[in-house]
Write a structure and sequence with these properties.
85% of the residues lie in helices and 0% in strands. By secondary structure, the chain is mainly alpha-helical. The protein is elongated.
Length: 87
């Protein structure tokens, strides 16, 4: 356990930031899952709508540092390609 005042503060900050980051990652996963469900359901319009909602959320995650920017770009590119391939 920390003994210094600054170390105790750092523990509090880390715990708070961890909660925020976990919530952010969870939101991103939910938005991506909505896109996946729309794609598997075969509804192109719903997939495009879900994709447009997921895109800014994923970019915010990259900006906050919970996901790497290249990972976000790769995932968005692959989702978009799957949506475009739908009949």
């Amino acid at each position: 356990m920390a003994h210094h005042k600054s170390a105790k503060k750092r523990i509090r900050q880390t715990a708070r930031r961890t909660d925020v980051n976990r919530a952010r990652v969870g939101r991103i996963r939910t938005f991506v899952k909505n896109v996946e469900l729309a794609i598997s359901g075969g509804d192109k319009a719903a997939a495009q709508t879900a994709f447009k909602e997921a895109q800014p959320e994923m970019h915010r995650g990259a900006q906050a540092g919970v996901m790497h920017a290249n990972t976000v770009g790769r995932k968005l590119s692959r989702l978009n390609a799957r949506i475009k391939a739908m009949a």
